Amino acid sequence: MTVAWLGLGANLGDARQTLKDAVVCLAQQHTITVLAKSSLYRTAPIDAGGDDYYNCVVKLDTTLPVRHLLALCHRVESHFGRERPFRNAPRTLDLDILLYGDHVIEEPDLIVPHPRLIERAFALVPLIELDPDLIIPQHGRADAFLTAVADQRIEKVKPLCQCLAGLAAAEADTARGAAPDVAAGDSNGKMKRGGCR
Ligand code: A4P
Ligand code: MG
């Protein structure tokens, strides 16, 4: 088994939902165990045009050799409608292998650690959220590169599902002796509107 880290990005279609669905798709592979998923981030396009991106990172345990993992990434991208009209074109889904154990691979069609990882807040910030002490082979501590990307806009997206927020609000109300806020959720934390997605 190897611990691998994948970066997910999208800025075409329902990008937010695609990232969630892609994580489910990865988790359903019998060769992969998803160990952790970062928050979802909204990010400014870097070296690219189009709308803002949504990005996240997943940490996996996998029995797949790295080339099979790359092939799987390409299959999942295709499943979600990825097209490649030109370099850095807007995309429904991009899956990059950021790290694969402590392997260092430099081949024409596969470079690990991902060659632009240390230059990009949209990869570094979610990685460091999952592992604040992460070491990038050949580069050292991931957090050492944060200052250099501080000008890249990145913001954490609040989860669409407000159930837990509703529950927290109800518990706070109960603690204050106040009536629960029906807009946020009832006394059992159930949503009055919207719902899980
Ligand atoms: N490839 C080589 N190494 C890897 C690796 N570690 N993981 C090859 C995945 N693929 C790797 O990838 C092109 C080729 O890279 C593949 O055939 C594979 O064999 P691609 O997915 O077709 O194209 P790409 O992702 O556009 O290329 P690239 O060069 O990886 O682009 P980047 O650097 O990933 O940039 N801004 C924001 N805010 N958020 C983003 O997610 N993404 C990009 C793409 C630009 N700006 C962005 C974002
Ligand atoms: Mg890619």
Automatic annotation (TrEMBL):
Cross-referenced InterPro entries, in alphabetical order? Hppk, Hppk_sf
Q: In which pathway does it act?
A: Cofactor biosynthesis; tetrahydrofolate biosynthesis; 2-amino-4-hydroxy-6-hydroxymethyl-7,8-dihydropteridine diphosphate from 7,8-dihydroneopterin triphosphate: step 4/4
The source's superkingdom equals: Bacteria
Annotated region described as Disordered, given as residue ranges: 178-197
| CDD domains noted in UniProt | HPPK
Name one matching Pfam family: HPPK
- In the Enzyme Commission scheme, what number(s) does this protein have? 2.7.6.3
Which Gene3D superfamilies does UniProt cross-reference here?
7,8-Dihydro-6-hydroxymethylpterin-pyrophosphokinase HPPK (3.30.70.560)
Query: Domain 7,8-dihydro-6-hydroxymethylpterin-pyrophosphokinase: where?
Result: 87-98
**Keywords tagged on the record:** ATP-binding, Folate biosynthesis, Kinase, Nucleotide-binding, Transferase
This entry's Gene Ontology molecular function terms read: 2-amino-4-hydroxy-6-hydroxymethyldihydropteridine diphosphokinase activity
Q: Which SUPFAM superfamilies match?
A: 6-hydroxymethyl-7,8-dihydropterin pyrophosphokinase, HPPK
Main enzyme class: transferase
Tell me, what does this protein do in biology?
Answer: Catalyzes the transfer of pyrophosphate from adenosine triphosphate (ATP) to 6-hydroxymethyl-7,8-dihydropterin, an enzymatic step in folate biosynthesis pathway.
Q: Could you say which protein family the record assigns here? A: Belongs to the HPPK family.
Which NCBIfam families does its entry note? folK
Its name, as the record gives it, is 2-amino-4-hydroxy-6-hydroxymethyldihydropteridine pyrophosphokinase
Organism expressing this protein natively: Paraburkholderia kururiensis
